[in-house]
Amino acid sequence: MQSNFRWDRRDHHDQALQSPDAGPSHHHLPNSNKSRSLSRLPPRANEILNDFVENTDRPTKQQRLKCLERIRAIPGAEWYTDANIYARTRQKKPKQELFQLLYPSLQPELEKKLRILLRSDPNPTPRIVEIWASRLMVDVVDLQTWVEIAQERRKVGRHPTLPTFSSLYCVSRQQQQQKQSSSPQEEVPPRPHLPTPEHTASPEPAQRVDPQHVRHMLATSVNTAAAASHLPQPPESIPTSLTEFNKSFEFFEYNMNSFMQKVRNGEYETLGLTASDIPPLNQT
Questions:
Q1: What spans are recorded as compositionally biased (Low complexity) (predicted)?
Q2: Which of 48, 87, 220, 253 registers the highest number of CB atoms within 10 A of its CB?
Q3: Is the Cβ–Cβ distance between 209 and 271 less than 8 Å?
Q4: How far is CA 121 from CA 51, 73, 118, 135, in A?
């Protein structure tokens, strides 16, 4: 009974090979043959299958059956079916199609090695690309194409992202700096420095300050302060007696007298202020 079943199975396979218009043949194998179907093809049969899958785009039923005849002719591959070939052709990855289209001599399995080489030398010369192609046994034009595409992807990024606020700020700042550097600017005179204390890391001014410039700055400051005094100010308590007025003015009088005394002592000569700029004591 069991022998008759095996004979019918082989006869069914022969009928599938003779009818090219049928779809992928699916067979119910005995348990012993199911375990054999899960095993790998012999190396020669696997080579025939890989060559067929890689070089045949969307094979027809008749093309698959011809390949199946060649595979079954290899000892140990008699269990292989058209359904197996059909499944392999459907598993063809888009990356394989991309490699075949752009660089046919390269295989997707080489991409890891290529990325290692490109990281070691991000901008290889044509001679280096020739050496790589020779060692990997691929076409130099295909390898050069892969390198150029990888470099472009690294520049622009594989997935473009929306600009962030920080990136827009950086771009705006760079444009402003370029605009300022391209337009001629007048030289700004050095600002005067106050006397440098004894214990400090700040350097003394490299140039002596012009006294006229200092007087102009003081006059400007006085005018600015006078103009600011006319602006609306928050209400303050008004002295109701001469004693209260003198008490509130003591602080300002002390600071003014202290400043004038330092000018008379020559402490501000580096700023262009001398004793001649201060009225005599009998006029203050």
A1: 173-186
A2: 48
A3: yes
A4: 33, 48, 5, 16
